[in-house]
Amino acid sequence: MRIFLTGASGLVGAAFARAAARRGHAVTGIVGGFTGELPGLAARRSLDLGDESAVTAALLEVFPDAIVNCAAISVPETCDADPARAQTLNVALPTVLARLAHHLSARLVHISSEQVFDGSRTSSYAIGDATSPINLYGRQKIESERAVQAQATEFAVTLRAPLLMGNSPGGKRSTHERLFADWAAGRPVKLYADEFRQTCTAENLAEVILELCERRDVRGVCHWAGAELLSRYELGRRIRTHFKLSETEAPISAITRAETPEAAKKRQACLALDLAPLYGLLKTQPQTIEAQIAELHVPATSRDWYFSRQ
Ligand SMILES: NC(=O)c1ccc[n+]([C@@H]2O[C@H](COP(=O)([O-])OP(=O)(O)OC[C@H]3O[C@@H](n4cnc5c(N)ncnc54)[C@H](OP(=O)(O)O)[C@@H]3O)[C@@H](O)[C@H]2O)c1
After folding, report:
1. Which residue of 80, 101, 195, 201 has the lowest C-beta tally within 10 Å?
2. Kind of pairing, strands 2-6 and 26-31?
3. What's the pTM value of the predicted model, to 2 decimals?
4. Same-domain check for residues 189 and 56
């Protein structure tokens, strides 16, 4: 299969490129500013994905069987800092890709987020549940879901993903990589003991995306996540234990949402996803936290700190 991949240098895109190459697909990966190595790509283009005509030209040149959209402004605070840029990447880009997918009869897999929900309940959110975003990022993700489905009803699937673990090309994007960066720099790490997430790894999500490239019968919005719900604080503690770091070397303080009422307004307390109908339909299985943590590497950017510890 010829696959056009945006966000090839991101946490999910890079994992997808590796997984697709293992399965013999030819992936053309679009990157922005990243210049490091990216295994798995048959071809690589550096492009501003905010430039609609450049995106259209690059895509028509590849004439793909499938388009995988992993590009985004994926950090809520970055969306708040530059809403117009976030709107271009998070909404306008998927809209253009969906229109092109429709014209080419190409499969489109677009990635959305658990943050379309407000996280105010403790039971799982199902795909039919009403969305209720509490931040700009979540609102943009819903807008993208609607645009993608409107433009490419017969070709598109949108996958809502949870907080991600995994190993990113730059070593700075995923949950454990951010923790390592803080520990190495001596910055205090405060994690919420009352915020719960159903994490999965980018590598596991990539396997799901790959299956969805091949399963054109699956359309509309779907959910994917891990097999367990855990607080951010407990997740941090488990990561620390896995890497055999002590409490002194890698301190973590537990905080609660009540201690940070302003920040809590834009943060979801509990995001649990019901994986129907994908669970059972795909070969890929949701992973336990233990299995996710076992896949993590010491980030390249923190190696000196980690291996020079006494
Ligand atoms: N990370 C999470 O925890 C998480 C959770 C749920 C859902 N998601 C969603 O999953 C998808 C993938 O997220 P991710 O974490 O892999 O994202 P990421 O690591 O932040 O990567 C973003 C990608 O977008 C590219 N990009 C951004 N602006 C660009 C531009 N103007 N032109 C070209 N490329 C541009 C970046 O390229 P360069 O770096 O080369 O500039 C990078 O490859 C996104 O839709 C995100 O919203 C992520």
Report:
1. 80
2. parallel
3. 0.98
4. no
Residue 119 lies in a domain: yes
Name the residue of 18, 44, 70 whose CB sits within 8 Å of the most ligand 1 atoms, as the mutation to test its pocket.
70
Neighbours of 246 (CB within 10 A): 10
User: pLDDT of 148-207, one tens digit each?
Assistant: 999 999 999 999 999 999 999 999 999 999 999 999 999 999 999 999 999 999 999 999
pLDDT exceeds cutoff 80 at 30: yes
Counting from 1 in the atom list of ligand 1, the atom nearest the Cα of 173 is 19
Q: Indicate which atom in ligand 1 lies nearest the CA of residue 7.
A: 43
What is the full DSSP assignment across 153-206? TTTEEEEEE-SEES--TTS-SSHHHHHHHHHHHT---EEETT-EE--EEHHHHH
In a domain, 56, yes or no: yes
Ligand 1 midpoint to CA 74 (Å): 5
* pLDDT tens sequence across 275-308: 999 999 999 999 999 999 999 999 999 999 999 9
210 shares a domain with 188: no
Domain containing residue 54: CATH number? 3.40.50.720
Q: Is residue 282 part of a domain?
A: no
